[in-house]
Amino acid sequence: xxxxxxxxxxxxxxxxxxLVRDRLFWQAWNKSAFLFAVxxxxxxxxxxxxxxxxxxxxxxxxxSSALQAIQKIATDKGFGFEQKSTDHIIISSVPQTSGYxxxxxxxxxxxxxxxxxxxxxxxNAKDSILPAYKTAYDLCLHIHRATVKxxxxxxxxxxxxxxxxxxxxxxxxxxxxxxVVGALPATPLLMECAAKVHKLRINIRILKDLQQxxxxxxxxxxxxxxxxxxxxxxxxxxANTRIAGATQKQSSGTLTTGQPAS
Length: 262
Fold this sequence. Notes:
With 262 residues, the chain is an alpha+beta fold.
């Protein structure tokens, strides 16, 4: 069941426990998780921010093999137990229970795993591209996740084009962040990256209009794209400032021209 559908069920306001199936597990979310932990059985609770719905969610889960025992606990307490569909069970007649806000606030978020990419540290002017690289890398990850479940007719054409474009941007900025390219060739490379970002924005809009990504996903990706463009504009100005400084040194005689003195 999709996250937005689960949250819609939870927002119904009824005092019941909703169990939703996720492959070999059953889960209770938000208020249902609280009521389940209080009246049925205590399992480990998880909390995280879901970008797709732009809000925090909390849930607990148990394997399908434990469902029969859960049903017995519920019925022994006089609760109703109804399987609405293959993916949805309702435990009804649960008494009114206070303390949900305190329970929610007490859930400790799981610490995110350490970042996989080995980002270079900022050491000099050439490394000022680092924020743009980090943003491009994160954008590339978000785009891959957003396009993985698209319809087949779009996944391997438009979806592949969008993913490849995001990869090209991240790879080019990675080269610059690691000083693989110098200051002088950085300007055309930045312009190439900016052009690809604009193409990416158009393709993302097409995916939204084709209903292959949600409006919330499109809004989030578009904000990331705008942020990346701002960083590229700033780095473009920095690169041109460094080039101007090098040119000024040449004109002041720092570098010889090879012409004989008059």
